[in-house]
Amino acid sequence: MNDQEQHAGDAGDEELSPAEALEDLLEEVTDGLGLDASIEIDERDGVLTGRVEASDAGLFIGRHGQTIDAVQHLAQRIVFPEGPSPVRVVIDANGYRERRAETLRGEADDAADDALGSGKPVELAPMPAAERRIVHEYLRERGGVETHSEGDEPERHLVVSPLPG
Length: 165
What we know:
By secondary structure, this protein is an alpha+beta fold. Helix 2 (18-32) runs antiparallel to helix 4. Helix content is 50%, strand content 22%. It folds into two domains: 3-94, 2-Layer Sandwich (GMP Synthetase, Chain A, domain 3); 98-162, Ribosomal Protein S8, Chain: A, domain 1 (2-Layer Sandwich). A three-stranded mixed beta sheet has the order 1-2-3. Strands 4-6-5 form a three-stranded antiparallel beta sheet. The protein has helices at 3-13, 18-32, 57-61, 66-79, 96-118, 129-142, and strands at residues 37-44, 47-54, 88-93, 122-123, 145-150, 157-162.
């Protein structure tokens, strides 16, 4: 066995913590995209968060968040390869997740206002499960309307209906 093979074998024996595995993955992805990025990992309240800061984070986020959502999905599976974990992995870039949540809350308010004004259900555009959850939780707190999901992925969407009464 040559030196390279020996070192490769050593690396396979080393067990990375979930935080280390996530940091390695994000470094690999940002390097692959040619981004000069800083990466920060934070773990609290059952959420392992990887934050990427980069001047061209749009490449990492992708159109309608498709790239960052795909990286997040892969990260969950790579960081916890043994299967479902009570710890959820969240990937963010340049504060994208909070900006997107604000946009979703605005769309949710508009849909709720329309549903209450017309007395009829209002369908929102298809969105990933994590975004549907944000809208469900936000409108549950707001009150006056109820929500449910319809359709199959990737066309699954929320329906906002006025509460009977």
